[in-house]
Design a protein that fits this description.
190 residues; mainly alpha; 7 helices; 0% strand
Length: 190
């Protein structure tokens, strides 16, 4: 097995481990686990798990829609983008701390606060940006045309971000000011 695949696999494991460790460490007692689970939220959870399993299997074993025999420049660029995304996603997850709510739960808890420091000082949705870059980098490092499929996530990410912003605007009076001074996904751009 080539070293790139091992590195990508270890990055995915690190990403998931940090998520699970922080989820347990920062478990919010106000969240009633399973109370808001509808068939749609269960489906979203299932899809998230299946995507993760596919990425792990692809990373370790599969050459899905290969771009070329071997392009070291593309592989290096992919690894750089992968690690940038990993760093952004993990940093943002640490920044959000106890304010973490699964994306499919669409709720703001009574003790939650608006996070505007760390990665959130620069953009409003760093976890989405980090995860998106992680997936783009992974597919580029594997030299797979599935990198184009990752672009299909853009409308989903935008829809989710808009829904979250609408909810946060209702709950936090200061959200409008925060929104005015930060960009949604890319600092100083959008």
């Amino acid at each position: 097995m080539e070293i790139t695949r091992i590195i990508l696999f270890l990055g995915l494991v690190l990403h998931k481990a940090v998520w699970e460790i922080l989820k347990r460490k920062n478990r919010n007692p106000d969240v009633q686990r399973g109370a808001l689970r509808t068939p749609v939220t269960r489906l979203i959870k299932f899809v998230k798990v299946m995507v993760l399993l596919f990425l792990i299997v692809q990373t370790l074993f599969l050459n899905v829609l290969p771009m070329s025999a071997n392009n070291p420049s593309l592989r290096i660029a992919g690894l750089a983008i992968f690690f940038l995304g990993l760093a952004i996603a993990i940093t943002a997850r640490i920044n959000i701390g106890k304010n973490w709510i699964d994306l499919e739960d669409y709720q703001v808890l009574p003790k939650q606060s608006l996070i505007t420091n760390g990665a959130y000082h620069f953009i409003r949705h760093p976890i989405y940006v980090g995860d998106f870059l992680l997936m783009v980098g992974l597919e580029l490092a594997l030299q797979s045309w599935l990198v184009l499929g990752v672009a299909l996530l853009i409308p989903v990410i935008i829809r989710q971000a808009l829904a979250e912003e609408a909810l946060l605007s209702k709950v936090f009076p200061q959200y409008g000011e925060y929104r005015a001074r930060t960009n949604r996904f890319i600092p100083f751009v959008i």
